[in-house]
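Reviewer 2 asked us to include a model.

Predict the structure of this chain.
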Amino acid sequence: MGLTSSWRVPETARRTSRGGATIVRTETPAENDLVIVLTYYAPYVSGLTNVARDVAEGLAARGWRVCVVASKHEPSLPNDEVINGVRVVRAPVLAKVGKGTIGINLTRLALREMRRSRVANLHLPLIEASLLTRFAPIPVVSTYHCDVSLPPGLVNAAQREMVDRASKGGLRRSASTVVTSEDYARESRLWLQIAPHMVAIPPPCLPVPEASPTYRRGDGFHVGFLGRLVEEKGVEHLVDAFLALDDPDARLLIGGDHSRIAGGSVVDRVRAHAGDDPRIELLGFVPDDRLGEFYASIDAFALPSINAFEAFGIVQVVGMLAGVPALVSDLPGVRLPVERTGFGRIVPPGDVPALRDGLAALRDTPPDPAAGRAAAAASFSVESVLDAYEAVFTKAAG
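Predicted model (structure tokens):
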């Protein structure tokens, strides 16, 4: 259930006095229990977007009235629609800069929906965070996903500083700050702002249904990667490690969008490293209804991230829930699922020989899939995550 029984109140009249005059104000029930604000929302695909979507839809299924305010990152998207029980309001974009968007309507629409809601949840990094928390008429819970990481350059440095300042202001004025793990938060540039009101809640990791291994190409060892083909993912290092494995029967399946990526894709770099090796296949975007087929087709999942922009890696836990062990970089937050479950291997980021050796170990001595699946389910169930978010939102709203 949502907060309907304790939050919705009948319309009442309240009398106040100002300068000797009596003013009668009519209070009406809020239209939303929760408003979620972020830059990119579905159908855009990223770890941050998926967390916001899964929390929104999960709470809506529990009876919460949820509204999402996001940028209209594709002109063809409707301004207002309902997706799986969640009302989505999109603000037109004036321009895109790096991984962010520019437009005044997001702030205006978010404040409008806040006035109709009981509690707000901002997903950071968000350039509007400081302004929104300054003028928010309701309590705000911020979910801080990760520090912004951009290539070197004066423009990118300025953009990073602007986003960090906005996040700092937003975090200081938030009732609570949700992070995916304390492991990551302690290494963040914004730890001093995160720490006072931190609550660690892992992202919801939805299991995929059992499916046929339609992406499989033979009986050899199959390695999979799934995610946006961007700088911080380190996919070219995985390609180099796979090639060094020198296994003619092995296959590397790389799934992920590279055509509509905020900040640009590194697909050309990945292709250059792969060369014309027929064992490496770029699958492109893998839709949700085929994720079960993808995970059923691989023997190990690799997340070779190279910097702290990656704060958790939901895709590795989804793989664990499907019985697939993970090879991940030794980065704050990213290493947590393997540390907690023991279902996989942890290697230094960007270390090709270590990645090669990790792949060989998972191939030659694969861990027990049933035990790994059970450990992942015990630590990262969707219901426990939604319970935790529900408690944070309820407490913030008083």
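The chain has a mean pLDDT of 88. The radius of gyration is 22 Å. We have added this to the supplementary material.
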